[in-house]
Amino acid sequence: MEKVSIRQLERYPIYLNYLLSLRESGVSSISSPAIAKALSLSEEQVRKDLQLVSRSEGKPKSGRNIDELISDIQEFLGYKKVTNAAVIGVGHLGQALMNYKGFAEFGLNIVCGFDVDSSLIGTKVNNKEVFSLYSLSSKIEQFDIKVAILVTPKESAQEVANMLVNAGIKAIWNFVPVHLNINDKIAVENVNLASSLAILEHNLKQKGDE
Amino acid sequence: MEKVSIRQLERYPIYLNYLLSLRESGVSSISSPAIAKALSLSEEQVRKDLQLVSRSEGKPKSGRNIDELISDIQEFLGYKKVTNAAVIGVGHLGQALMNYKGFAEFGLNIVCGFDVDSSLIGTKVNNKEVFSLYSLSSKIEQFDIKVAILVTPKESAQEVANMLVNAGIKAIWNFVPVHLNINDKIAVENVNLASSLAILEHNLKQKGDE
DNA sequence: CTTATATCAGTATAAAATTATTGATATATA
DNA sequence: TATATATCAATAATTTTATACTGATATAAG
Known about the structure:
The structure is a homodimer.
Chain A: H1 6-24, E1 29-30, H2 32-39, H3 43-53, E2 64-65, H4 66-77, E3 83-88, H5 92-99, E4 108-115, E5 124-125, E6 128-132, H6 136-143, E7 147-150, H7 154-166, E8 171-174, E9 187-190, H8 193-209
Parallel strand pairs in A: 3-4, 3-7, 4-6, 7-8, 8-9
Antiparallel strand pairs in A: 1-2, 5-6
Helix pairs in contact in A: 1-4, 2-3
Chain A binds a DNA duplex through helix 3.
């Protein structure tokens, strides 16, 4: 496999999204410059990104076949095989994630939630049961859960992360704004809204100054 | 202002978070290498990042004063002045965002929500009223709303974004997985969960292969 | 008080990512 | 069918970002 950069990885879902919407409106082929224009990227970047994951070459003048391109990106991103996940911490955000329908198209299947709050345990959110955090190990095995979606309060995030690792989780999608110190055999990806907001505010300030 | 990179901007909230937790546990000064170690970064990177925003210099052997550092980062990120925001689209995620307490510390104040669903209009979420999307212009002015937090369905995102711009919004924090074509006077920052998940899955796969 | 050293600031180097360039070619158009 | 051109792949140049190095200095330890 050729090396793919983090930045590239971030772009593929964006391409995919756009291509899917194009296909819905009946388009059957597209060129890199056209994609670039639609997504405000450079054509070189788009071409390189697509070259990396696409099995067939693009054709001058006509571009690439959309169906093939979609299939190749989905394949590359692993959307074609299902990964089971669980939400850890069934608060507002946790529940919103459990209710989110869109994960299915990413191959992510949220099978259940975990919490310590006894008033939540045994309830269902979007038809997915909420279990006690202390049944983690058995449920992870039982449901073949690979990814933990961590949405606990800050204070308990590290402790719960340790529990997850002990219970055999291989990847943590961390929505808690805390740096987790974790065995580097485990994949950790942080969703940091504060970082995103910092960029927005910075841009807002700059545009205001112009 | 010296130039700051996107990557750096993303890191400041992470530093801040860590420093706040340190201060809570009574620590009063910290060195760049110590921060680097705690957050799994390189000491050079941390030092450069801090140099950029810190008004006072660090001292060999003892490092930097935590209170000062926290204050400088907060100042730099604009956390000390309040920016009013509104949630556009009061679904599961929109409600979760309206309920999220953490934005206050970022200087972001969600004042209300907007939706087109008449069963939502007039209700309150976390004590913030939900207005009709068609009252956008007047409310934006009335409440001095600067940032729109966009959480609509895909299909309507672009159309609503246009309405927001017409109504005078200066920044859009876009949670919808759609590329918005917007006047570049407006700051747009995309929160793309699919991108984040793509990175996680890629790492998961790589670690599995090792 | 003196010395050793951790940390600093500033600069230089290296790595990563993006953008530009070049020559080739498949297709649309005449 | 011939020609012009949009797009391609591959490579080179540039820019951005991260890391390493150097000499200076404030503090801890003796």
